[in-house]
Design goal:
single chain
Length: 261
């Protein structure tokens, strides 16, 4: 479904019992809300699950850049307003985790808990992002897909998870260049580490042990900076443990959510 919020047409999906606590899921760069398909069966029996595509991704409108992490957080807040949802448990991976941190900083009353998956509070170096942006401009997302898949999954999963990798490849290639660049520029320019002490919501920091992008070290920075946080490292996983180690990821996430109000 689509709805206008923050002057943006946002693509979203809402599933689960009408009276259930709301869990909101936010996607990574170069993905869409289908990246969370593997979590739905574990959650929708109890939770009202809101998934949406971030600006410039999936079925959500692409607007001219530049974007900022603050803008992405305002998109999430505006979507909640339009759907008349007061507060949520926010689950964000990578770019979705950047959005989560900013939302919890700007609107703490809207966030009952956070799950920050394979994310960070700063992503350098800027030269790396400039190179990726240039490659996208000249060669489209086709120029980035192979390297992205190498970073997102461990080498064994490239054999055992071939079907899932193909679905992720299609998701990456379905991302528009302008939307990618707008979000990549936001990521390149962000430094939200100063926000961590302001986050008061109970927080689960989850990270794949082999993530080369948002590393275990980066997860440790989040954990050390957020007062009410716990850190869980998932073995045999890289940047998308929700896909690579779906069952373990779901178990950890559901246990955390069930401990909240």
């Amino acid at each position: 479904m689509k709805i206008k919020a923050n002057n943006l047409e946002i693509n979203y999906r809402l599933e689960g019992p009408d009276d259930g606590p709301v869990a909101m899921f936010s996607n990574s760069l170069m993905s869409n809300y289908s990246m969370w398909d593997g979590q739905m069966a574990a959650l929708t029996g109890k939770y009202r699950v809101l998934r949406y595509d971030q600006r410039g991704h999936g079925g959500t409108e692409t607007t001219p850049g530049p974007y900022t992490i603050e803008l992405l957080a305002e998109d999430a807040r505006a979507l909640l307003d339009e759907l008349d949802i007061e507060a949520i448990h926010f689950v964000g991976l990578s770019m979705g985790g950047f959005t989560a941190q900013m939302l919890a900083t700007l609107y703490p009353e809207r966030v009952e808990s956070l799950c920050l998956c394979d994310t960070a509070c700063i992503m350098g170096p800027k030269s790396l992002w400039d190179e990726r942006i240039d490659n996208a401009r000249s060669g489209g997302l086709e120029a980035l897909v192979s390297g992205t898949l190498e970073r997102w999954f461990t080498p064994p999963f490239h054999t055992t998870g071939a079907d899932q990798l193909e679905a992720v490849r299609e998701m990456i290639l379905g991302t528009g260049v302008e939307g990618y660049i707008g979000c990549a520029e936001a990521i390149r320019d962000m430094d939200i580490c100063g926000n961590l002490a302001k986050i008061s919501a109970p927080t689960l920091v989850l990270v794949g042990e082999g993530d080369p992008a948002c590393t275990v070290e980066a997860a440790g920075v989040l954990h050390n900076g957020i007062s009410q946080s716990e850190l869980v490292i998932i073995p045999q996983a890289a940047h998308l443990p929700n896909i690579e180690q779906r069952d373990r990821f779901n178990e950890i996430l559901v246990n955390f959510l069930n401990q909240q109000k």
